[in-house]
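To close the section, here is one more complete example, presented without commentary so you can practise reading it yourself. The ligand is thiamine diphosphate.
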Amino acid sequence: MTYIAKPRLHHPSLTENKVCYTRRDYEGKISTLCAGCGHDSISAAIIQACWEMDVEPHKVAKLSGIGCSSKTPDYFLGNSHGFNTVHGRMPSVLTGANLANRTLLYLGVSGDGDSASIGVGQFVHVMRRGVNMVYIVENNGVYGLTKGQFSATADQGSTSKKGVVNADSPIDMVSLALQLGATFVARSFSGDKKQLVPLIKAAIAHRGAAFLDVISPCVAFNNHPGSTKSYDYVREHNEAVNRIDVIEKREEIVVDFAAGELVEVEQHDGSVLRLRKLRDDYDAHDRIAAMNYIQEHQARGEVVTGLLYVDTEAGDLHEHLNTTDIPFNALAAGELCPGAAVLEKINGSLR
Ligand SMILES: Cc1ncc(C[n+]2csc(CCOP(=O)(O)OP(=O)(O)O)c2C)c(N)n1
Ligand code: SF4
Ligand SMILES: [Mg+2]
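Output:
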C-alpha cells in the first residue's frame, strides 16, 4: 500500500480563501513517509503557500520522478493534476505538458537522486530553457527510498549511517541552477516554515524557471552526526541572506519606512516581494555575485538560505519560441493543421 485515504471531515469554521477553498481542499492522502521526514514538512509548506496564494487546485499540474520525495505529490493538492513519471525524467514530461498547455501552474517535485544523479541531464535542460515552473528538490543527500546510498549532493567527507566516508565532490544544485540561467533561485530548510512558505509563494508568482533547493533531512538514513544534511547540522550552519514576504497584487502595498534594509521587488504578475535583508552585502539581483557568495560560504561550511537570485524581467520558453497562448486541446483541427497548400508553401521556401 502506498497511501492511506484521508477521512473527509470538514470543520464548519475552516477559513475559506478568495477562491472559496479551505486549507483542507489543498491536502492529499495521508503520508506513509517515516515520521519526522523533512519531505512531509515541505508538503505542508506547499499546501499553505497554495492556499494563501488562492491557487485553484484544478489549475495545478504536479509532476515528479521516483523516490520518497517524488511520492509526496500524493500527499498534497489531491484535487490537482498529477504525473508520477520515471526516475530522473520528470523535467522532460513537465516541459512537454507546459508546451501543450501554458495555463496551468507547473509544480515539479523531485529528489537529489532524481535530479542530481540519474536525472541531472534532464535537470540542466529544463533550467536552461526557462520553462515556466516551480521546481523543488527535496534534498537529503541520499537515495532515501532505496535505503540511504549517497546521492550526488552528499558533501565530500560526510559519512553514511554506517560510517562510510563519501569521497566524491558534491553537486551544489543552486550553483548549478544559477549557472544554467534559472531566473529565480532559492534555498531553504524543511524545518524553517517561516522562510519556506514565502519562498514557495514567490516562486509561484515568478514567470520563468523557479528553482528551490530545500534541505530535507532523511531521518532514517542521513540524520546522524557525520551528516551535513541532518537537522542538527543545518540548524547550526544555516546562514540566511534575507527573509521575504509576498504581497499579492490585489492587496494594498504598505511600505514599511522604519526598516532601513527593506527592498521591494515587483514580480511579473504585479505581486511584490519584500526582501528583508539580513546580510548588508547581499544583492539578490546579481547572478555572478550570488554564485560567488554561495561558493565563499560553502567553503566555510555554511549553508546559505533565502532568495539567492531573482530576475523580475525574465521570459519563459513560450516567449522564446513565440508559441500560441491557446492550449493545444482548445485548438481546432484547422488551426493545428494549416492544410496542404500552406505546408507546400513552407516546404517550398526551404528547398
Ligand atoms: C531507472 C531507475 N533506476 C533506479 C531506480 C531505483 N531508485 C528508486 S528511487 C531511487 C533514488 C531516490 O533518491 P532521491 O531522488 O534522492 O529521493 P529520496 O528517496 O531521497 O527522497 C533509486 C535509485 C529506479 N526506480 N529507476
Ligand atoms: S527513508 Fe528517508 S526520505 Fe524516505 S521517507 Fe524515510 S526519512 Fe523520508
Ligand atoms: Mg534524496
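Once you have examined the C-alpha cells, check your reading against these statements. The pocket of iron/sulfur cluster (ligand 2) is lined by residues 33-34, 37, 39, 68, 140, 144-145, 218-221 (CB under 6 Å). The radius of gyration is 21 Å.
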